Amino acid sequence: MLFVTLAVPLLTGACSYVPRIVNEYRIDVQQGNVLTQEMVSQLRPGLSRDQVRFILGTPLLTDAFHDERWDYLFRLEEGKTGKVTSRRLSVFFDPEGRLTRVEGDAAGGSTAELTAPVARTQVVDLGSLDADAPPLPPPENEPGFFKRMLESLGW
Q1: How far apart are CA 19 and CA 146, in angstroms?
Q2: 102 phi and psi, to 5 degrees?
Q3: C or N terminus of the chain, fewer CB within 10 Å?
């Protein structure tokens, strides 16, 4: 009886030990609004609240006593390394609801950046296709899946 009384606490205490060889998996924890520099560079003075909400999304923090300020916060904690990345952006409006200024980690774009043409081309590598080879003809009257199933049943 004395042996069991001593063995049970020792065995349950051994279950809580995890050797350093075994590392538990930790997920990346993302909180708040994801803000890219492209989104912030679209902001310019004079935009309405709806336009700002369309560009940046719904703000994380709105204060009932300070209606002229919206706060966008972002925090990412990487599970593997434990590194924390955080960004803050505050958007201020005038009494008429027009954007006056932006403060935070990301700066807004200038007029030249906003009016510059954007290249919308995409390079696609088609591999080693021979340009001189004729294209393959489509298969002629190849039955589909259901037609083959009906034919296999005799219909």
Answers
A1: 56
A2: -135, 135
A3: N
Residue 151 belongs to what H/E stretch? helix 145-153
Q: Of 36, 18, 24, 32, which Cα lies nearest the Cα of 79? A: 24
Residue 99: enclosing H or E segment and its boundaries?
strand 99-104
Q: Report yes or no: 98 and 48 within 8 Å, Cβ to Cβ.
A: yes
Residue-wise pLDDT for 93-126, tens only, equals 999 989 998 888 765 444 454 445 555 544 544 4
> What DSSP assignment string belongs to 29-96?
EEEE----HHHHHT--TT-BHHHHHHHH-S-SEE-SS-TTEEEEEEEEE-TTT--EEEEEEEEEE-TT
Question: For residue 23, how far is the Cα from the chain centroid?
Answer: 26
Give the tokens for residue 63.
Answer: 């204060």
Q: What is the pLDDT of residues 29-59, one digit of tens each?
A: 888 888 888 888 888 888 999 999 999 999 9
What CATH architecture is 23-114? 2-Layer Sandwich (3.30)
Task: Determine the Cα–Cα distance for residues 70 and 50; give it in Å rounded to an integer.
Answer: 12
- Fill in the amino acid letter for 93: F
For the chain, the structural domain boundaries read 23-114
